[in-house]
Amino acid sequence: MQLNSLGFPRIGRRRELKFALEQYWRGEISQQALLEQGQRLRRQHWLWQAEAGVEQLPVGDFAFYDQVLALAATLNVIPERHRDGDAIDLDTLFRVARGRAPTGKSAAAAEMTKYFNTNYHYLVPELHRDQQFAIAWEQLFDEVEEVKALGYDPKPCLLGPLSFLYLSKTQGEPFDKLSLLPALLHTYGELLARFKAQGVAWVQIEEPILAVDLDRDWQQAFAPAYEALSQAAPKLLLTSYYGSIAHHSALVAALPVAGLHLDLVSAPEQLDDFLPLLQSGQVLSAGVINGRNVWAADLDLLAKRLAPVADALGERLWLGSSCSLLHSPVDLDVETTLAPELRQQLAFAKQKLHELNELQQLLQTPASEPARAIIERCKARREARRLAADSAVARRIAALSQADFERDSEFVVRQQQQQAKLRLPLLPTTTIGSFPQTAAIRSLRNRWRKGELAEAEYRHQLQQVTRDSISRQLKLGLDVLVHGEAERNDMVEYFGEQLAGVGFTKNGWVQSYGSRCVKPPLIYGDVSRPRPMTVEWAEFAQSLTDKPVKGMLTGPVTLLHWSFAREDISRETICTQLALAIRDEVADLEAAGIGIIQIDEPAFREGLPLRRDQWQHYLDWAVASFKLSAACVRDETQIHTHMCYSEFNDTIAAIAAMDADVITIETSRSAMELLGAFEAFDYPNEIGPGVYDIHSPNIPDVAAMVALVERAAQRIPLRQLWINPDCGLKTRSWDEVEPALRNMVAAGRELRRRCPLPA
C-alpha cells in the first residue's frame, strides 16, 4: 500500500524561494545563486516526503514562478515577444510572467488567471493556429536525475495534454484548440519516452478538466489521446482533483491507464462510482487527506471507511492527498506560539504526509499499540473541536429578514443622489486601495509587533505615511482617493486578526502566484466583530482632504475563500457570519462621514463549483452575503466592489445581482477582452476596467491607457466608465506607481477632452 504525494509546496517553510526570487529580480544575487536555492529547497522537500514513507517522489511540482508556465516552456509555447533568441532560459519565463527580467527586452506580460476554483494563479499559455511544439526546457528531466542521485524513485507530475489545451488561449485568427492535439500528443510522447529512458516507472498525468462539464468534442478526444500516450510509456496515473469526475465515469473507466487518482475530500461519493469500474490490475489512489485545508484528519474514521477497499484491492490501493499540497502551508513545526488547543487541530503539508503514514498503519496493523494511540488522539481532537457556539451570532442570523439584504432604492435613483453629493467628473480616476508597502513600513510593523515600538508612536508614524499617501494623490490629481492601507499586512489577514473566532499562524504561508504569498486566517469558531476595524484610519484620511476618500474593506465571500475555514458547519453559514461583521463596519464608516465604501470580492468567481448544476446554490448565498454586508447604507453612499483575475462570462448575472454601484475589474492583461461579458449582458451599473497591469514593473504610457479606455468605451457607455489600475499597488514601488498613475490621470484628462459631456 503506497503513499502517494501529488506535489509539495515549493516556497520553503520560511518563504526562502520568495526572497531569493525577489533578490534576483533586484539584481542582488546571480541566477546561479537562485538556481542553487531552488535545488536546496527541492532536496529538503523530497527528503521530508521520503522520511514520511513516500516511495515515489514527485518531480515537476517545483517551479520558479508557475508550473503551467514551466510546462509551456518545456513544450516551447513561449510568446515571440518574450523571446531573446532561440533558447529558453529562466529569464524567458520571468519575462512571460512579469513582463520584465534582468536580461532581454521588456514586453507585455502574459495573462494570469485563477487555477480552477483555487486562489493559485497560473500564466495562461498562448497558442497560434500554426503552433509548433518541441521539447525546449529541460528542468523536468534534470529534476528526475536529482531524485535518482538521492537514491529515490522519481514520479514526474505532468499536466495532461487536454487540460493544457483547455487552460490555454488562442491568439490571432480564431481556430479550434483541439486541432493542435495531434501535434501536442507527439511532443507529449517524446516527453514520456524521455522519462522511460531515465528509468521512470510512473508518471502522474493530471487532467483536472475531468471535474468540469466538457462538451462532446473534448470528451471524445480523451480515448484516442490516451491510446496514443500509453504506447511504450511509463505507467500512467491519471489524476483528477478539486471535484468529482463521476459524470465522466464511463469515459475514464475505458482509458488505458495503469492507475487512477480520485479526490475523495471534495467528492467522497465518487469512490462508490469507480470501485466497480476499476480494470484488472489498475491502481486506485485515494485522495483522502485534504490538500486545501489545514485541519487534522479524522484518521480513525477514514480507516474505517477505507478498510473494505483495502481488503479488496490490497497493494493496488494507494493513499494520497486530495490534490497537490501546493495549497497548504509548509510545516507546522515552525509554529511555536500557537495556542496548544488550536495547534493540535492542525496539519500542514509536512504533517499531512505523516497523516498518510498513520492512516497506512491503521489499515495494515489496526490492533497494534501505535494504531490504538492514533485512534485515541483522533477521538480527543474531535472532542476538543466541539467549541461552544456564540448564541448572539446565531440569534442575529435567525432574526434576518429580506429587507436586510436590499438597498432602499434602485441603482438609477442612487446614482443621481451619489453624483449630486460627490460631483465627480466624467471618467473618474481612482486606485483600488493599497499603496506600496515599503521596507520602512514593513520594518515599522515588525518593530511594533515585537514590542520595540510603543502603540502611540506606531500610530503616529502610520499617520505620517497616510498623510504622504493623500498628498501624493492630490498632486497626481486623482478624483477619488484611498488612504493607502499602510497599517495592513494583508487584505484578509488584517481583518481576520480583529474578528472573534479567527486565529493566526506566523509562518502559515501559501503561494498565490510567483513570489506572492498569503497567510490565510484560521476560522475555528463563530465569527463576530468586537470593535471597529478601519474607521479610525478612514476618518483620519478623510480629514486631510475635501476629495472623497474610499473606506476599504474585504468582502465576506473573499474572507471565507481566502481563509482556512472550519469544516463542522456549512460555508454558507460562515459567510453569513462574516457578512454581518462587515455590515457593522460599513455602518460605522458611513456614520463617520465616509461617502464611498469599497467591499472587495476578488474571490467571488473562485468559489464557483466546477459543475454547472451546482452553481446556482453557491451564487445565491454568495450574492446574498455581499448584499447583506452592504445594504445598510443610505442611497447617497456609493458602494464599490473589486474583482480581479477571473472570467466573468459565466457569473455576470450574479455580479449584477450584487448591486454594487461601481465594480472595478482587472482587464489590462487581456486588453479589455473580459469586458465582453459586461457588454453582452448590458451591465446596468458603473464599471472601472483596469488600465495598468500592477503585476508587472513596466510603466504604461498615456497612449496605451487611452487606447484601452477607448476599447472599453466601444462596449460600455462612457457614462458608466471609471479609470483605475487592475488591482492594489502594495507590491509595487513608488518609483513605478507615481509615473504610472500620473499617466493614468493624464489619460483621463485626454479622454475628457476628446469626449466632453455635461458634468
From TrEMBL:
Can you say what this protein is called?
A: 5-methyltetrahydropteroyltriglutamate--homocysteine methyltransferase
Task: Report the pathway entry.
Answer: Amino-acid biosynthesis; L-methionine biosynthesis via de novo pathway; L-methionine from L-homocysteine (MetE route): step 1/1
Q: How is the cofactor bound?
A: Binds 2 Zn(2+) ions per subunit. Binds 1 zinc ion per subunit.
User: Gene3D superfamilies in the record, alphabetically?
Assistant: 3.20.20.210
- Which keywords fit this entry according to its UniProt record? Amino-acid biosynthesis, Metal-binding, Methionine biosynthesis, Methyltransferase, Repeat, Transferase, Zinc
Q: Name the Gene Ontology biological process terms.
A: methionine biosynthetic process; methylation
Q: Which organism is it from?
A: Shewanella cyperi
Into which EC class is this enzyme placed?
transferase
Binding of Zn(2+), residues: H642, C644, E666, C727
Report the EC code(s) recorded for this entry: 2.1.1.14
Q: What does this protein do?
A: Catalyzes the transfer of a methyl group from 5-methyltetrahydrofolate to homocysteine resulting in methionine formation.
Name the residues that bind 5-methyltetrahydropteroyltri-L-glutamate: R15, E16, L17, K18, K114, N119, R516, C517, W562, E606
